[in-house]
Amino acid sequence: MKARVKWIDGVAMLGESESGHGIVMDGPPDAGGRNVGVRPMELLLLGMGGCTEFDVLSILRKARQQVTDCVLELTAERAPADPKVFTSIHAHFILTGRNLDPRQVERAIKLSADKYCSASIMLGAVATVTHDFEIRDA
To answer: N or C: which end of the chain has fewer CB within 10 A?
Structure first.
């Protein structure tokens, strides 16, 4: 996998992925930014969220669960001193569907957390990563 990050101006940067997609990153004004893009650490958290949500939905589809919507709310805490790594991350899944089986949802989240989601497993080496979920009827 390859990526490229190009400085734009101030502390703004353009990240380009090997698959041809781009994202603007920037910092807050007090750090020299103009707040025109996502912060790099926010992007790291979003990447973990996308990775685990992808896994969970894939596993639930294979289990023939009728998911009609999925929202993942992430909350993270960072160390107070540099390098300010994540110390805890909580992932709250809100799944909507027809007759969703809580055991299947719990199984999918556990498989993602323990086996498939490389991003959350990697971040779990430095942070405590927890998960929970709620199910809503469609």
So the answer is: N
